[in-house]
Amino acid sequence: MARALGLLGNEWTVLILQRALLGTTRYSGFLHELPISNSVLTSRLNTLVDEGLLEHRIYQRNPIRAEYRLTDRGRSVWSILLAIWDWERTWVSHQDETLPTMSHTPCGCDFRPVLACTACDKAVAVQDVSTSWGPSGSWARSSADAMTRRRSGRRAKPVFFPETMEAFGDRWSSSMIGAAFLGICRFSEFQSALSMPPSLVADRLQLFVAQGVLTTVQHGQRANWVEYHLTEKGRAFFPVVMLMLTWAEKWYRSEEGPALIHVHDDCQKEFVPTLTCSHCGRRLKGGDVLPSTAQFASGAS
């Protein structure tokens, strides 16, 4: 999970994968479509090749010309990006004006992705899933590598998926979001479970409360205790979290076994998430999902 969060917690990586899923393959294409520097683009492409999400192919020898093609591992991130798109468009101010609607080509309708259980096909929300640590699971092994998560380039702050990157853009934020979904709600619990410095706990809690992802609740029996609970906006981030964890388990699975075990309470089967169309109810496939406007065709615009 640390490796997956290290990769997908970087906005440039997410944007390069988004462009690749829409058909961009050449270095010049990524550079033209994204407001990114040559050095950052080269670094991120090399990382994606090293991690097996892109394949570097030479298609011409004289002069040398190459392209970057998605591997199966790279193509499989489409559902995570779709969940990020939906959450940002629904919950982040002004994103409904900058991100396009999506069309499901089999039914021909604009839609929203719905998180569902592959075992029973029922829609699933955060309260419908029970999660426990697996054989390879621990907080220490699930925190992303800080060395892979700095964002640099022509822009100083995330601008395309700003609040998603606040949640996954550094090791402490992603760990705290995960802890909140596992039921941790007090300052001392965050500090103890994650071995975080108190100043960082306070900073991240303040950030998530300001964003409306967490809200403060007075403890019912202890007047001097304040708890931090996920809001409706915070709970709506659950599809992004589950799809990212499932992707991590599939492609970076430890020999010891899964880091987390998820059970769908309704059918009592292992919860493996899928996305369905809000209009026709059919399972979504990456090739059947297209932007219904050209508004997001170029990140540089």
Briefly summarize what is shown.
GO terms for molecular function: DNA binding. This protein is α+β, with helices and mostly antiparallel strands and 301 residues long.
Structural overview:
This is Helix-turn-helix transcriptional regulator. The protein is of the alpha+beta class and 301 residues long. The chain has a single domain, classed as Winged helix-like DNA-binding domain superfamily/Winged helix DNA-binding domain (Arc Repressor Mutant, subunit A, Orthogonal Bundle), CATH 1.10.10.10. 41% of the residues lie in helices and 19% in strands. It has a three-stranded antiparallel sheet, with no helix packed on it. It has a three-stranded antiparallel sheet with strand order 6-9-10, with no helix packed on it. It is globular and about 75 Å long. The C terminus is likely disordered.
What distinguishing features does this structure have?
301 residues; alpha+beta; Arc Repressor Mutant, subunit A; three-stranded antiparallel sheet; 14 helices; 12 strands; 41% helix; globular
Beta-strand portion reads: 15-25%
Number of helices: 14
CATH superfamily: Winged helix-like DNA-binding domain superfamily/Winged helix DNA-binding domain
Number of domains: 1
The gyration radius over C-alpha positions equals 20 Å
User: What is the CATH domain class?
Assistant: Mainly Alpha
The CATH topology turns out to be Arc Repressor Mutant, subunit A
What's the helical proportion of residues?
Answer: 40-55%
SSE run: HHHHEEHHHEEEEHHHHHEEHHEEEE
Low-confidence stretches: 146-156, 294-301
Distance N to C terminus: 33 Å
Overall geometry: globular
Biggest sheet descriptor: 3 strands, antiparallel
CATH architecture: Orthogonal Bundle
User: How many extended strands?
Assistant: 12
Q: Give the helix/strand class.
A: alpha+beta
